[in-house]
């Protein structure tokens, strides 16, 4: 089955057919949404043949499949990525033009599926893009949330969340498959029974829901391959109870439906502190049980010998959120397929691998045995058995060391009896990896050190990466064509080829062209922000960018202190505004709705912005811009325009970061601590092309151990004091000292993430930035070297590492 030849006329024909027959409107009567849905349908049809062929190929070759289990996928808009993959960009644009439609208008109509919070969710999206482009058989499994990450608005500078009804106008990139629905059970009890002399256990659940799969295409780049992202929607097994309905209790008759649907209703907007809510655990079990049983029942051929399961699939756990899948596979193999426990466990341990994405103890999920026992009684039993066998193994290896036993037990006792999901994932996983060298080292040496002593070969590292298709080729087309002109097009799937730009960094003409690309991206960003939020960017300003979730460990407050220091130095007359390097500070950041301090910091940033931006004494030399609702689409406009990339987390707190990679690959210079992947960026781009500051992780530990008194730093540093006092004075809150008092006092008396300790080094580094930026040509050379030496940060390379070290799968033939 071959896809229709791509020609402008052919595309026009397909498009109009889709508009008329699928959307049911004529061109003249159609509105932008009709046209967008028809366009998406047309592009989809061009990719469909490949998709179907690939599924056949995967089935025929019985190749080992990577099942990526993730509670989040931050996909970004699909249209351009699918047009790029299908080489249809120009043809579609010309075809639409023939129909009097502008592709830019179509791009505006598309809604971004925000099925994720931040780093973890976006990483999953980059990974499945790379696996498709590398022709590796992959199924991305997740949840089809009806409401994604909230839409952020600012009211008087404060974050207000709006629901994200992304499906309201239809979702043309998905295909429902109700015929492949899975029944997922909850609650109830277990009982043992005799099965021809073998004691077996059965689970008698209380209630069930249906998991209905929706497939989305994951097209490879120019390789004719299309993998599948399979997202589950919850529905009631019996949507409507006629008996209750006929009894006149209409509300009761549909209650089951609404109750069931709640499971996939909304994404939890937390990205660091689990709320431990029952619905969250329901979500996790719902999608993981549906995914595992979908693979066993639908992908594996009839009568498949489950002993060989590890040769056929690897379930990659994207953090602990899907780890309930371990006892689920054990339940299916032992209770349903009648396998011996030991055999089932041996298989299970080979079928799972675990990636940890955090270092914050509070972000490690634990579920109370009460809740687990009530919702998933059989799974709790299985976890207890896994733990018993594991602790037996610990005793054999380390003797009866009670402290070690208690520390390593999957079951924690304090503050309440709970299951430590990271420990379960570590015990069950064939491999455990961190997402940057430093992170993986800290997992081995600190967070999971007893486990690293027990299973030294289990621990590995795979440094994160980002897809060059979306974050260079699509987000920065002018840079992409400059690179392709210089190096050929191969870099898009072989990013190490960017090395070829090193020599060109020495070429003044090439530097000039690069500088023009950056300037053009600044103007483009200014147009986007003017249309979106009514603000403009001065393109002779240094664009200082900090875009990431709002979290105290990421230290947006340190960035605010820098801005206030600059501002204070002007209004106090210490520095003439004219002597200041003109800068525009761009923030992008959502705070988890329940995270009060994060929301207060957002309020502070917006308050500083409105004072600084409107103070004539600043003479426009400083500008603070904080567009609301930072998401993948906004990132695609901000990142190509950035000069300076702010990666200023306290060393030892950011697992990796991926924004740092995207910014370096788009020619921004990094000011950062030796944290997460910043370390590897600095090692690759070179110290001369990176503004390092602050304590290293061991220095942080040492200061903490010595006893950290933030107020001492305040007392000792007049510049810091001036900045803190200005905030405390109410200068940014209409003289009301109470508004930001909690932020100031937290820094003075708590400061868990040592903002005050790193302040002086940071300000000194920012001086180096100003000096460096004054020599535009040298800055441009350094920017080009950052790109040239950042090819390592392609998610294709990350996938190669996972394939070699963890998955042992290979591309389809
Ligand atoms: C249950 C609450 C919750 C939800 C999400 C806790 C933790 C998470 C994620 C693990 C948080 C996250 O997104 N971590 C980020 O993952 C990125 C991809 O590996 C890293 O680059 C970031 O450093 C890390 O903060």
From TrEMBL:
CDD domains: GT35_Glycogen_Phosphorylase (cd04300)
Signal peptide range: none
One GO molecular-function entry: pyridoxal phosphate binding
Record's keyword terms, sorted: Carbohydrate metabolism, Glycosyltransferase, Pyridoxal phosphate, Transferase
Pfam family of the protein (one): Phosphorylase
Top-level class of the enzyme under EC nomenclature: transferase
Modified-residue entries (N6-(pyridoxal phosphate)lysine), positions: 662
Gene3D superfamilies: Glycogen Phosphorylase B
Keyword Glycosyltransferase: yes
Cofactor(s) of this protein: pyridoxal 5'-phosphate
Substrates-to-products reaction catalysed: [(1->4)-alpha-D-glucosyl](n) + phosphate = [(1->4)-alpha-D-glucosyl](n-1) + alpha-D-glucose 1-phosphate
Gene Ontology cellular component terms for the protein in this record: cytoplasm
The keyword Transferase is assigned to this record: yes
Gene Ontology BP terms: glycogen catabolic process
Enzyme Commission designation: 2.4.1.1
Superkingdom assignment: Bacteria
Family membership noted in the UniProt record: Belongs to the glycogen phosphorylase family.
Function statement: Phosphorylase is an important allosteric enzyme in carbohydrate metabolism. Enzymes from different sources differ in their regulatory mechanisms and in their natural substrates. However, all known phosphorylases share catalytic and structural properties.
PANTHER family per the UniProt record, alphabetical: GLYCOGEN PHOSPHORYLASE (PTHR11468), MALTODEXTRIN PHOSPHORYLASE (PTHR11468:SF25)
The protein, known as: Alpha-1,4 glucan phosphorylase
